[in-house]
Specification:
The structure holds two protein chains of two kinds.
Chain A lengths: L1 H15 L9 E4 L5 E10 L2 E5 L5 E5 L5 H9 L11 H20 L10 H13 L5 H9 L5 H10 L2 H14 L5 E2 L2 E2 L1 H12 L4 H10 L2 E2 L7 H4 L5 H13 L18 H8 L5 E2 L11 H10 L3 H15 L1 E4 L49 H10 L6 H14 L19 H13 L4 H9 L2 H4 L21 E2 L2 H13 L10 H9 L9 H15 L34 E2 L2 E2 L15 H4 L17 H9 L1 H7 L4 H7 L4 H13 L5 H12 L4 H9 L2 H4 E2 L1
Antiparallel strand pairs in A: 1-2, 2-3, 3-4, 5-6, 7-9, 8-9, 10-13, 11-12
Chain B lengths: L11 H14 L3 E2 L18 E7 L23 E2 L5 E2 L4 H4 L5 E8 L5 H10 L12 H9 L9 E4 L17 E3 L15 H14 L1 H6 L3 H18 L13 H7 L3 H14 L4 E6 L8 H25 L6 E7 L2 E2 L11 E2 L3 E6 L7 E3 L1 E2 L6 E3 L2 E2 H11 L6 E4 L5 E2 L14
Classes of the chains: A alpha+beta, B alpha/beta.
Chain lengths: 693, 421
Amino acid sequence: MKTRYFAFFASVLLTIGLRAENEVYRTWTDSQGRKLEATFRGIEDGQVFLQIRNGYVYRLPLDKLSAADQEAARTLKPQGLGIPADPNLAQAAARIDMLVDAGLAKAGQKPNPLASDEQFVRRVYLDIAGRIPTREEALEFITDTSVSKRAKVIDKLLNSEGYRSHLFNYFADMLRVADVAQKARFYTYQDWLKGQIAENTPWDKLVFTMMTADGKLLDNGATGYLLRDAGMRLDNLSLTLSTFLGANVSCAQCHDHPFADWTQRQFYEMAAFFGATETYGTRGSKGYGMQNMRRVLASIDDRRIQQQAKNILRVNAMAVEDGSENDLKLPDDYKYPDGKPGDLVKPKLVTWADDKTKKAYQGVQTKNEEDLRTQFAKWMTSPDNPRFAMTIANRLWKRAFGVGIKEPVTDLDDPNASVNPALLHHLATEMVRLKFDMKQFMRLLYNTQAYQREATSHELADGGPYLFPGPVLRRMSAEQAWDSCATLVVGAEVDKFHAHRGQTYAEVMKIDFGEGATKESIVADIEKAARGMRQYGGTKGAAKNKKKRPMQPLISGGDDSIEVAPPVRNGLVLARASELPQPEKDQHFLRMFGQSDRQIADSSSDEGSIPQVLMLMNGEAQRVIGQNDSLVIQTATAQKSPEQQVESLYLSFFSRKPKPDELADAVAALGSGLTMRDLSWVLFNTREFVFVE
Amino acid sequence: MKLENQLDSLSRRSFCEKWAKASLGVTVLHGLGGRAFAADGPGFGKAKNVIFLQMIGGMSHIDTLDPKDGPTQGPKAPIKTKADLQLGGTMENLAKQADKISIIRSMTSKTGVHASGQYLIRSGYEQRGTIQHPNIGAWAQHFKGASHKTLPSSVCVNRQPNAGNGFFPASYSPLPILDPDAGLQYSRSDVSDEVMRKRLAMLDKLDAGFRERFQTAGVKSYTEFYEKTVSIMSSTDLEAFRLDAEPDALKEKYGRNKFGQGCLLARRLVEKGIRYIEVASGGWDMHNNIEEGLEEKGTELDVALAALLEDLQSRGLLETTLVVLCSEFGRGPKINGNAGRDHHPRVFSTMLAGGGVKGGFVYGSSDKEGFSVADKQVSVQDFLSTIGWSLGLPVDEVVMSPTNRPFTVGDKGRPVMDVFA
């Protein structure tokens, strides 16, 4: 593995020669006369950081350098990003930069200049922690004189609550995480997913768990993935293949793909791996099938309880279990010569055209059909699967840079049709090398020069591929915008509230049908659940009625946990989007700003609309931000001079100080009838606020 | 073909917009299904506007548009109308306008679930987790461009837009009016006009540097949305959404309820040049006590629809406005144990009026009980193609989505030509 890796890079080095053309290399000599050609990355605590051409960063004590070089280290301006967190990371980041730069050079393009501290701090907070920094957080970074501050803030944010919240939002959109699906509440699934993110479970393991999860939704949140599409295994598979493997198969569900290689038969052969899996409670023998529910229901004489019981039992019937045989058949309208409608389909894994040299893990054939799902999951999440690592790597790249190396991210059928195939293949290799550790992978991307450059400010000539001279300028996601609004009003406190609805919900709803259960105990359970259900406003979706209390926060109650409720202003619950109803109700800021309705995978929107702009101009959010009890207003008002007040607002909204003309204009406005609230309205409604540089 | 590799802007949606523009000239495949409709057939393009009335919950065909005698008859006996057709007993007012309507009594679908049925009858496609399908308003905007220079081309009343733009740009999504009496949400500022003017002037000043530096499509499009929004807020266009201007007597005539006022709003919007208006009416899922349900919802529909047809005609708008009445499915012939009717997609009815459609006409039929299609089956796809045809859309033209999948108006349905005069 390793030798091939380096051979690959040798060839890249040959083509481009230098790590980056615009960097200055000089020859450094230590006190023993040993020489090193390297760029100067900075000096901290008596250590000098030097980066050689392959990207590796050496750390040398200052007093070990020759006298002339000691002088140089004290006077030279550091190159690039400052001191990295560790030499291996710097080297890995430099390799990515080499590939990006090679792609740019080939097209005769230049990379963007490095982003300023102000641009960087706002971007890195939004990208990693999902919200803008508070005025204090921004100032802390900007005024920090240490040369290692960029690497440090990346690591700090990767370990913050905000990171978890923000990554959850990404997966919630991708996996269509909704509070209500199939008339049941999927809180346990959400809590499970949040837990996996908090523990930084490797991606392969996380996906494997979802594919192979068994049992009741109430007991095992990981079943939520399959149960989201209970009874619709073909739809579910179509999403699985496109989401996790970038296989563009959705056409093949109904007919041979007109352009790509996929046939309908192949699709059904893949679906056969789920052919023994029951998600609809109609078969199954382990005691939580729908039939068992009906039996219990029939045994209850009280009609009133029967009605209540129906919903509760349905929730208890949400379960995944494997039967003993695969019953997947070709559809009634199957029209190809290789099969007849109604033919049983045997499971068979697909291969890709470019998969000839490196055969994907093909699994161990087993006679026991209960293991079909496991076989599929092993094959899919294997490091040798030619698409699994690449798909998540391309997705996470898009998360950092705003656009994938291959678009759309759900179609990686031909990686060589991407804008930079070498980079795409390399990222897939890196994902495997990092053992699918998403946090380490994101850390790597954030530490590249490519990421830390200025956002691209011009529109490319029509039809030109985007080769990553820097990240693209992005509009905040709905969640970033909402969480940033909440940050303006309540500050960093906004990260503190967590909704853990799953455990409470499961405790309330779970009915025990075990050996010891009697008719009386079951009825008692049902009555208890019916009482509990009222907390959730019936079985329908998120609180429909505006006049109802905005949300009943359910806090998981460890004995020593303190109950905290999020602040509510003008009817807005100021908690992170990840802790609010999934998805929010239609007229909520989040939805109007493009939060996915969680019906379609990856369907959040970053487009404007008239209703959205009306909301930004006249809705609740601008009012709550501009009120006297809002932190941004309080902080600004506390400043002495109008100049300082304006500066405070600018730092809060944009993480930068105003330019002289902006300062003059804003101060003049404050003197001629506009209030602090008006000024906050203005800054909130700028493009600069909603776009991420 | 590999346009997605040339993605030069940030988002999939904005990418869509480019695609949509390109597909007007380049990626449209003609006659993939091997058939074509003559674009000068009867009724083609007669409608300039569509008012799409969607009854949410499953409107009982037997009690409204396809009345039956005998054991399946509902709480009220069928009534005679101005035309040679009968209507359900609740439809007293519509009976007087029956000379303006065509009823299709042989609709059928396989979907007995509300959400997917509603999705199907709005878009012509089955709901999937991988793509959103456009409503007819978005299709019309794709083929014919915007219908108004500042206002959106589609509006939806008493309902959410639910991404009605489908895979087309978000700006094709209908503008939601959740309460017809209140008008456009957030359209009034909470500060005085003078303060708002000052704010806007400051906004223009303080944001100028950023707009100058980042001349990307995304930033420009936001600036345009702000310009449009401000112009709507300060222009007379907003009047289109304000029912205050309508005389009280007319408001009464449409019925003082959300659906009635929604129909009145739809007429106002047609006058203002908005092409596609959806008006929803909830509460049609009458599993229990259908008599009470019809008394309320049926009467609301009857009063509002009759008023709408009469009003449109008296203003000379009916010829160019197609009024559509539909629901996700019908309700079964059997009255259940709770004195209601259950879901019934096997046969149900829809209605068309105006826009070149025949008056006093019935197409197709259900059997004696209203259980199955007896004659001239019409699919949901055919039904939507008929609407598209009336609007003058090329219903056989294949348009590729950004994900490179082929779609047509009404999913290859065949327009029901017989309903056109």
